[in-house]
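Intended use. Records like the one below are meant for learning the mapping from a protein sequence to its folded structure. Do not use them to infer anything beyond what is encoded.
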Amino acid sequence: MTFQNTREFAQELDSQDKLHHYRNEFLFPQVNGRKVIYFTGNSLGLQPKRTKAYVDEVMDDWAKLAVEGHFYAEKPWWDYHERFATPLSKIVGALPSEVSVMNTLTVNLHLLMVSFYRPTEKKYKILCEAKAFPSDQYMLQSQVRFHGYDPDDAIVELQRREGEHNIRLEDVLAKIEELGEEIALVLIGGVNYYTGQVFDIKTITEAGHKVGAYVGWDLAHAAGNIKLELHDWDVDFAAWCSYKYMNSGPGNASGCFVHEMHHDNYELNRFAGWWGHNKERRFLMEPKFSPETGANGWQISNLPILSLAPYLASVEMFAEVGMDALIEKRDEITSYLEFILHEIDKEVDSTFEIITPENPVERASQLSVFLHGEGRALFDYLMKNGVITDWREPNVIRLAPVPLYCSFEDMYEFGQILKEGILSHKK
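Structure written out for the chain above:
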């Protein structure tokens, strides 16, 4: 398609967009009396309008039934989490038994590492990407220290080549082969939070398994954003947060995946709790832990139903839309945003360098842009003029045109505000 930098063209794309009506399903903040252009769904998604009804239902059941809501609410709290199995499995490409909801992202990664980081004297190293999200870095450092190893020795970071912004797949594979049997675990972010690079999960997982390592993925920026086939790719484990692309609310519950090949492996360590105990025998209050089948056997505590309610509202919306339709629009609207940036670049003195890969296979709903010649003042201008975006030092803005609620006209309007912001403070 030949794009045009005009409002009329953007409006025509919106008229052809099969998902455009979902924009009306969300609540937008307002600046200067107008809906914002919202580019931070990679940090916190907008609130779906239907969310309130799901939360109110739980509140009403609590008021009317109190403790009996566990069994007699319209959606009984006892098995509330089981409603996630089918829709979540479709989002991440899993069997329903392989997914569960519990805790928060880093907590779940810690708990999964109890099972899947099993260092020995010769096989103790963890391979991760350089400039991973800091929480992952802190987690890995604390885990290897807990096992008595030095993080500087045990954690191996995949580096970018000099002058490049992204990590080459061939360098990942070469590093895995180089370290060989020293690697106990490969744990990488499926989409790098800073650059927006999408890693080849299938190929990297195969390479890790070839040297006898477990392979897990932090899918914080991937779940609900990219096509995932965790079961078919033989990923050992994964976890993700629900409040970015899945719009479940600030700091909300995490999802996790454990491949069925591990479900009956009782030699794997795990931290046990009452809610992970066999569901049919849970109230017998038995002294010996017998885990629930599947990923639910990694649960520990009973679940925060008020937190799960917004998440359920979101995954049911995803079930309506389907990942294929989301990805189709994602690719088109991200390409249109890229086009707009290049067009505005021609009209101003500053230079925009998109550090997210050009190859659509290696990117998703995010463009990270170096604003050469610009500083924080431009970001402040955008925010004051209704463009909610994200600033990362030294001068990068991250733009996430989320397909569920961003429009093509948003992309055009953003370009005009961006141009005005650059020109206004250079007069």
